[in-house]
Amino acid sequence: MNSKRRSRSGQAGFTLIELVVVVTIIGILAGIALVNVRNAQRKAAENVLRANLTNMRKAIDDFYADKQRYPASLQELVDEKYVRSMPKDPITKSDTTWIEINEQAEATDSFDFSSTWTPGGEDQFQQPGIIDLKSGAEGTTLDGTPYGEL
To answer: I need a labelling partner for 97 at 20 to 30 A (CA). Which of 2, 37, 46, 121 fits?
Structure first.
């Protein structure tokens, strides 16, 4: 019986080197996982930004197709029910950081009333409307594209 006790007590536990190796491997794997989670969150926010821009641009195009003019403001898209609400920029977490790109007035030598008069008997002139939308977020995407160029 004494020989059995000695063999059991000589093999009990782990050596310090084995524990250090295991803890080091776990630390490396945890570091890799943390980086991947952060990149996944940022990539998801960038995909939401792209989808929001696509949907808003489609709403502007639909508005133009229906009214033969561009919306004077983004709120007009909501008021006319082309979008349910203004989406938030997922990078800045705000719905006020959108950069509106207005149509450029054509430069002519003489003022042509027929090109700016709103049809339908209304005595008003068209204001330049919003033809595009960009993100006002600072920085670049994971692939290096500035947010303002999406």
So the answer is: 37
